[in-house]
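tool_call: predict_structure(chain=1)
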Amino acid sequence: MTQDEFFEAPAEDGYWERVAATALTAARACMEPYGSRFSRQDFTRRQRPVILVLRQLQKTTYRGVCAFLHSTPGVRAASGLSRVPHFTTAQESADRADVLAVAGAMLGEIAGHMVDGPVEMATDATGMEVTCGASRSSASERSCRESRSVKASPAVLGGLCIPCALVVDWGPGSDLTPALIDKAMAVLAPTRADPDRGSDSERLHEQLRHEHGVKSVIPPVPRRPRQVVRTTSRSMMQEGPPGRSGRRWHAETAISGIKHLTGSTSHSRAARSSRPHAKSSAYTVHCQRS
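tool_result:
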């Protein structure tokens, strides 16, 4: 099976209903249905991620996904929608401040149900281009204006090639993300971690080995003359990591799958929406694969 076939959206009957039902089930475990008992309660908060997942898988606009829901009663029912919201309602819900936290919770919820027994973990980082509208919409987002990119760093389950945690920020930036390790450890307890060469640091070795008790295998990058590595854990890696080369290629495969399914560009008109779009791309892959 090729990589394209592995991540391609199949054409069988009931595919979109299954994707919507998976997203709704994960959302129910992560959030309350309403933000306030005084709200109009036309739609629930749990239905917002479902619409976002459908939009990203179809690589369409908010108008397009609402038109799709109008024409597919089965998907509408699987999404828990008695009627279709106006496209501006879907757009405004995707721009809310809590979208990043919700996306992270859903990512961990779905990944937690896929783990059965010991697992290995790999990490990597990639950039997602943002549109000109998003890069100019906020004068305070200096990095966004300069680079017009969002940096996404996923932690990937070895063997499954799906992310279990994700950290997003404006790029460019360092691959070293201790926050990613903490988020991944809250979801699973891997026996081994294989970050890529860009994460090489004694600090990350200590975090994995001493704080979490996980074997870390990171290719060292010599920073001294004559290719000498003197720190304790990094010098152990210089003679060759124990065992096989690890699962780093799984992280690269997962990143390729995310971009293949949802695109390599965040088509958000507002800067505040670019990072949530990148993070929700990860759990979109879960809903497609579940």
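agent: The longest helix spans residues 15-30. Proceeding to next step.
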